[in-house]
Design a protein that fits this description.
Layout: E1 3-8, H1 13-23, E2 26-31, E3 44-47, H2 49-55, H3 61-64, E4 68-70, E5 73-76, E6 82-86, H4 89-95, E7 100-103, H5 104-117, E8 121-123, E9 128-134, E10 137-142, E11 147-150, E12 152-155, H6 162-167, E13 175-186, E14 198-202, E15 207-212, E16 218-225, H7 232-237, H8 239-250, H9 256-263, E17 265-275, E18 283-284, E19 287-289, H10 292-295, H11 304-321, H12 325-354, H13 359-379, H14 381-384
Parallel strand pairs: 1-2, 1-12, 2-8, 5-14, 12-19
Antiparallel strand pairs: 3-7, 4-7, 5-6, 9-10, 10-11, 13-16, 13-17, 14-15, 15-16, 18-19
Length: 394
């Protein structure tokens, strides 16, 4: 008989994990708390070669690039002078694919389509509330009173994981970092042609980055420092206007184009950035966490989705070579943890540099950023060049 898996969460990791497990003879069902029509995930993300190389086995990347911006970045100082460029063209040759930015909603949509086309069932409006293990089975309970049982359960339910909360209540609380990842979409006449790169300017009081998609839409992003963690009703109602007003004032002495983009945005994005606590274990019994549920990462180097996709490869490989799921989970964590923590550390470092605005730091940055970017390209190889070979046959 086929082994069965319950997957909680239908972001990108859940459907791709289900497809990986199908290859090794698992039957999976995916349970998603949101409704099927809820595709309002406003954010976009930079998607790097390590994630793209996992994804391309199941999804035609050309479809994802129907609405995207490039991944290359040109850096400018507050006077509008270009001080450096981080080109991604070399990646195509080195890794077979090249970083680009795409909307999270599109990424999730195509992952779900791929899973559905492979006969994997995705249930919507299924808010996971708790689980129970008995008789060599794990049973998930949902808020609507329904249940599902299988051999194992994998939590792919992201930063705010309820599976993590149920597994490790005492350490599950996430920490607000006082930064809010902000951005938006705008249409303005003078920026209607696609750009060859993201333009990132270190303005007088903060950075501003934007690009123009192949559909002529301006995608911009920024960070907003906010001492007080926003309450859910603020995120819903007032935070976006607060951010719009604040950023317009931060950039009032920078290129007037920035304020024009901010003021003319038809959609504003605001995601408070949290740190997920370091967990001693990513698994317990028949339940395992992957992706942001296990090792959430701040978005400064765009690795959340790619690390989750790497996880899907590794956990499927280990479940294939180890009949005992708990051994597979244990080895999964021991193989992934060091890499993941190193990436998280890199992301924090990048996050810290984005908020520096004192004149001396700015002077050094303007002069040395080109040198650091050259070094950065070599240093990023360990992230982008990832491939999994089941190196130890354990």
């Amino acid at each position: 008989m086929n082994k069965r898996a319950i997957i909680i969460g239908a972001g990108v990791a859940g459907p791709i994990l289900a497809l990986q497990l199908k290859k090794i003879g698992f039957e999976s069902e995916i349970f998603e708390s949101r409704s099927e029509g809820n595709t309002r995930e406003g954010a976009f993300l930079g998607f790097t070669p390590n994630g793209l190389n996992v994804l391309k086995e199941f999804i035609d990347l050309d479809m994802l690039q129907e609405d995207c911006t490039p991944g290359s970045i040109k850096f400018f100082n507050s006077k509008g002078k270009q001080i450096a460029k981080l080109d991604t063209a070399y990646q195509k040759q080195r890794y077979g694919v090249e970083t680009f930015q795409l909307k999270r909603a599109n990424l999730n949509k195509y992952a779900r389509i791929a899973a559905t086309n492979a006969g994997i069932k995705i249930w919507y409006d299924k808010k996971f509330v708790r689980y129970h293990e008995a008789n060599e089975q794990v049973t998930a309970y949902f808020a609507d009173g329904t249940t599902a049982s299988a051999d194992i359960m994998i939590g792919c339910d992201g930063m705010f994981s309820e599976v993590r909360n149920q597994l490790f209540k005492e350490v599950s609380a996430i920490q607000y970092t006082k930064l809010i990842s902000t951005g938006g979409y705008a249409k303005i006449p003078e920026l209607s042609k696609p750009l060859d790169s993201i333009r990132m300017t270190f303005g007088k009081r903060g950075f501003f980055a934007y690009s123009v998609s192949n559909n002529g839409e301006v995608w911009w992003f920024n960070n907003y420092f906010r001492e007080q963690q926003p309450k859910p009703h603020e995120i819903e109602k007032t935070l976006k206007t607060e951010i719009q007003d604040h950023l317009a004032s931060v950039h009032k002495n920078d290129d007037p184009l920035f304020s024009k983009i901010i003021k003319n945005s038809h959609e504003i994005i605001a995601y408070p950035i949290y740190d997920v606590p370091k967990l001693l274990h990513w698994y317990k019994g028949r339940v395992c966490l992957i992706g942001d549920a296990a090792h959430g990462i701040s978005p400064h180097i765009g690795q959340g989705a790619s690390l989750a996709l790497e996880d899907t490869v590794v956990i499927a490989e280990l479940l294939k070579s180890h009949k005992d799921y708990e051994t597979a989970f244990r080895i999964f964590q021991s193989e992934r943890q060091a890499r993941v923590e190193k990436v998280i550390k890199s992301a924090r470092k990048v996050g810290n540099t984005k908020t520096k605005t004192n004149p001396i730091a700015a002077w050094f940055r303007d002069r040395f950023i080109g040198f650091f970017i050259g070094k950065q390209i070599q240093q990023l190889d360990w992230i982008y060049g990832w491939t999994y070979s089941n190196k130890n046959s354990h």
